[in-house]
Amino acid sequence: MQPSARKIAYAATFTAVSVVAIVASRYLPVTLTALLACSVCYFLCLMRCGIGYGLLCITASLVFSFILGGVGTVFLLDAVLFAPYSLLAYLMKKLRYSGKTAVIRAGIIVVFANIVFALIYYLLTSHISYDFAVMAEKFGGYAVLAVIVSGFGLVTDYLFLQATEYFIKRFR
């Protein structure tokens, strides 16, 4: 098989699996888990096929998600959080959680998590009739939730890194 044909086959396979994960997230009560699997597919496609095919995989999955349900929760979470995170993880592929690179990677993840949280917070407080700011005050306000989101982002990034390294080594 030619190298370009192999990349196309890998990209198509990763796109198909991510589409299945999007369908599962829409119809099963495992939205975040399925979207995290979708993010793993994006990342593996970026690692295996390069940035061009990876962006095609992400774009095709997002278009399918939009066609399937419009601008809903699944599409917004995928477009705002999971797809950009996959690209960020790809760009940080040389940074591991060891030594000096751990601090750099953790700092980047904390900044990314807070930017995404601020965007989601803004969308929830300005576009939904339920007052999310009142609910946030029950947990201590925006600042406390931002710290919680930062910690959750670091743990998720570490687990994501470990899982994707396992898949890359396992499926050479």
Task: Report on the architecture of this protein.
With 172 residues, the chain is mainly alpha-helical. The protein folds into two domains: 1-69, no CATH class; 92-172, no CATH class. The chain is 85% helix and 0% strand. It has helices at 3-27, 31-49, 51-69, 73-91, 100-127, 132-138, 142-170. Helix 2 runs parallel beside helix 4 (73-91) and helix 3 runs antiparallel to helix 4. The longest helix has 29 residues, at 142-170. The chain is globular.
Show the helix and strand layout.
Elements: H1 3-27, H2 31-49, H3 51-69, H4 73-91, H5 100-127, H6 132-138, H7 142-170
Average pLDDT works out at 85
Fraction of residues in helices? over 70%
Element string (H = helix, E = strand):
HHHHHHH
In whole angstroms, the N-to-C terminal distance is 16 Å
- The class by helix and strand makeup works out as mainly alpha
Shape: globular
Quote the beta fraction: under 5%
| Sheet with most strands | none
Low confidence ranges = none
- CA radius of gyration: 17 Å
Q: How many domains? A: 2
Q: Helical stretch count?
A: 7
Overall strand count = 0
